[in-house]
Every structure is written in C-alpha cells, then in structure tokens.
C-alpha cells in the first residue's frame, strides 16, 4: 500500500506544531524516505582528513546503501555504491584502508579506485571478449562536492549544487569548520552504536532540542558543568531554522562544558574565532543538524551521522573534530573529554540512548501510541525571519522547537514531491545581511 | 619493544604459581560481583590511583592492513571509553545522583570471567601481574531488553595489603558496531 500524500501532510502539521507518531515507525514511510529523501538529498560522507592520501578509502552509507568513498590520484574524491555490477555483492568489506583496487570475492570482478571495472576473470573465453567493461563500473553517486573539507554526495542528478543546498546554514557551519585559519581534522576512530528507534528523533533533537538537556542529562551535564546553565531557565542563546530544513541551536558565552586541560587554548581560540566570524556565532556551544542526517555539537568537538537501518533502527557514527593546528595535548584533551561525555559509553549520551530506544519500543508494539500526535509547539509564533544579525528564522533563546518544525516542513516537501523540491520562497540573498 | 600481547604469550611458561593463579581468579570473581550487586563505589575503590581504564574501538580492516594488536595505542585515537581515576569517579558519581535515568531502574548484569592467564611484567619487582581474562557480560534491562557482550580484559593488577588494585584495564569488546543503545555498564 503506497503512502497517501494527503494523509502524510495531515500527519505532519508543522504549521500547528503537531506531528503524528506514525511517521516514526511506518514501513511504507520509511521505504519512501529511502527513495525520495535519502535518494535525493546531499548526504555527508566524510571529512577530507579521513582519506588524505591517494588510494585511501572508507566505507559508509547513503541512506540504506553502502557507499565507498575514495581519494583519487589527482586529489579528488569519488564515491560509488559498494555493490558489484555482476551480482551485487559487496566489493569491499573493510571499513577503511588504502588500496589500488577492489576485487569482488564472489567472481573476481575488479574495480580501480575510480570505480572503473578493470578486470573480469575469463573475459576472453567465457565472455568471448564481448563484455563492454566501460559500461559496468561501480555505480557512481550523481554528484559529489566538498564544503571546507566536508564531503557530501547525492544520488540525484537534478539536485542543486551543494552550496545552494546548504544555503544559509553555511553561516553557522563556518563556526565549527572555519573558526581557525588552519581548519579542522577528524581524529581516527569512529564510535558506532545502535539505537532501536527512528533516525528522525535523533536528527530533530540535534537540530533544536536544548529543552531536554536539563532533564535527560540531569546526572551528567548538571553535575559536571556549570550547574546554573543546565538547571535554570532557558540559557541565553538562539535558535536558527533554515527554510531548507537545517537547524542550529547555540548557547552564548560558554566556550566549553568541561575543564578538559585545554582551557588556555580554548580561550585563545575563542578570540581568533570572534575576530574571524564575529561574536554572534563564534562564542557559542550548541547543537545542529544539516538536513537530513548530519549532526554535531559545536564547541564539544563532536560530529555524527544518523544512518537509518529500517523504520525502527539506526546507527550513530560519531567522530571527534579538532583544530588541525592545535597542539597534541589539546587534541588529546578533546579526545578524553569526548570519550567521557559522547559516544556509546558517554556519560551524557547514554541517557539519549535510553530515550530513543524506549520511544521506539512503544511504537513497535503499540497501536494507540502510533495514533498520538506529538507536540512541537514550543516557541510557535515567537520567531523572526528578519533578525538584525543572524540569517534564517531566529528564535531569540536556546529553548524552542522552530528547528524541528523547519526540519519536518522540509521533510514533507521531499516526501510529497515527484521531483526535487525547490524552495521558491527561500531568500538566496541571505548573506547580504550578515557581516562576512 | 614487545607488545603486551607478545609478552603475555611468552609468559605462559614463566612459572606463575598455583597459589597466585588462585588468588588472582578469586579477586576477579569478587570484583565483578561488586558490579553485579550494583556496588559501584566499592568496585571503584579497587582502582589504583594511576588507573587507566580504556576500551579501544575494534576495526574491520583488510587482513594485510589489520592491526596485529588492537590493545596497543596508536597516537590520539577515539576509544569507546578512556578513563583515569578522576573521570571514572565522574561515572560513579553519575550513578549516585539518583537522576541517572539510563540506569534507573538499574540494569541486571551478570559478568562471567574465564580463561585467566597471568604473567609477570618484565619490569616488575614482583608485586604486579599482567592478567588476561575473557568475559561475557549479560545485561537484561526493564522488561525485555537483552544485551550480550563478549570480550577480553588486559589488566595490570598490583598487590596491596588488602589484595590487589587494578592499575590498568584495557577492554577488547568483540563488536565493531556496538550492538546496544548504550554502554551504561562497566566491564
């Protein structure tokens, strides 16, 4: 049974802030997401620093599909399905490494790092020399591009260019990739773990849910950090909602949650960042989602992707992002701080897992629970599209649900549109209003 | 420099007495009983002041590029956890807040420890033992949640008046993608 588009629009009433729980569990909705959302959107693959040398590769996913990302000899990057063109077997089972080619271990079809089919066993006898190898390279993504070291790709040839897709969110992305002259790099080691819940719960939380912090993380943040910020009223900050579905929520004047041995460096870096970017976005910590499934915690060095694994399962792949030119002791301090707080065993993150997994269980077994409309009304009507400094729709405090409403508005457009859903009402001139 | 793994293999024939073997095994059994009995502060008190408690991430790599020894550290790399005594204390304090929702109600755990192999570190003056053991940790949580973790622990135990202190523990969890919503238990 196909998804009824009118029904879906009823279930996702972002204007009134009411979203049906059904979209977080329905199998048909999920299959449509793989096609219309993950099959079209620009998805984060890797950071340049993860594959620095020619032949370096890593395995990741775009939606449900395994994708190899490989550094080419000319310094460029290619990404293609990790599935052999002969019988669809995985051509590489390592999560990363360096190689000259990938040989499928089923029948031996072999591809170079550009994805070209370069060797087929028994090509001359069994195939009578008639196989056109040029036609059977690994299936390439439709478009691949980078923004300041962040590599994205899309399966949709009709998707607009990456920069246009990111839109006004680049103003905020710059706050965590371009705050120091030397740029950032990703530490080796991906923390991967599994939630039996829907990926959107995590993506929307990182876009805009600062509200949960005081309660969910009462045993960690409130204990370890500046307790006034995490137990009282909404901390001074802001929320950004992009018409394009991205979200960012920041708290001002809180350079780090933790004493992590890098305090002097952080203080110095903050001044550099303010000089480069201005105080509005530099002097914050917070959380963001680049639509649909790239998220992170600027100020806490964390970057992650929510990989969907079915309507009621996803994996978190989490990295630690550090300033490339920072001294090793600072990088080590950030590693230790991240390991203590984030990841499968992180004191903060273990409580998120408890929430997301139990919500999934309720929807899995229930019927009445699926009929519920969840409440996304916080801050409704208290946002402005005409902030004097910040681009996008702005809520003038850290608590609110504007980014979530923007996320589901865009999600609905992707899901209900036959073609790439262009935003005719998006203000392309957003950058004119900010001091860059 | 030989790795910890190689030293342990060499040391199998190095003459650890039956008495020491017995002492160490009994210590390990009592230690995990504290975890299974939810006596986290008592468990913490078994840690030496210079504790390092770490779990590296397990990798899927091609055979020719795989790590011979996944216990060893290689530069600054993300672990599953990497605690000294101070940060481990933060984790214990979290449990004592009464607001640690991920463990409230607490998970039921059962730690099974086996294959205990003891060796004397080459630089030791006789009061330290390198101990490798295998574990299975079963977690059952709330109504029907089950997690099952297998792996190996590489410990450095240091003798003190009351028995032993744990000066180092490296946990090799036999999973690449952690197949659980969190690791809110100790290993």
TrEMBL record, chain A:
Molecular-function GO term, any one: 2 iron, 2 sulfur cluster binding
Keywords: 2Fe-2S, Aromatic hydrocarbons catabolism, Dioxygenase, Iron, Iron-sulfur, Metal-binding, NAD, Oxidoreductase
Gene3D superfamilies for the chain: Naphthalene 1,2-dioxygenase Alpha Subunit, Chain A, domain 1, Rieske [2Fe-2S] iron-sulphur domain
Entry keyword annotation includes Signal: no
Root EC class: oxidoreductase
Pfam families associated with the record: Rieske, Ring_hydroxyl_A
Domain Rieske, first and last residues per copy: 42-121
SUPFAM superfamilies: Bet v1-like, ISP domain
EC number: 1.14.12.19
UniProt family annotation: Belongs to the bacterial ring-hydroxylating dioxygenase alpha subunit family.
Name the record gives this protein: 3-phenylpropionate/trans-cinnamate dioxygenase alpha subunit
UniProtKB/TrEMBL annotation, chain B:
Organism phylogeny: Bacteria, Bacillati, Actinomycetota, Actinomycetes, Propionibacteriales
Alphabetized InterPro entries for the sequence: NTF2-like_dom_sf, Rng_hydr_dOase-bsu
Single GO molecular function: dioxygenase activity
Keywords: Dioxygenase, Oxidoreductase
Protein name: 3-phenylpropionate/cinnamic acid dioxygenase small subunit
GO biological process, one term: 3-phenylpropionate catabolic process
SUPFAM superfamilies: NTF2-like
Protein family: Belongs to the bacterial ring-hydroxylating dioxygenase beta subunit family.
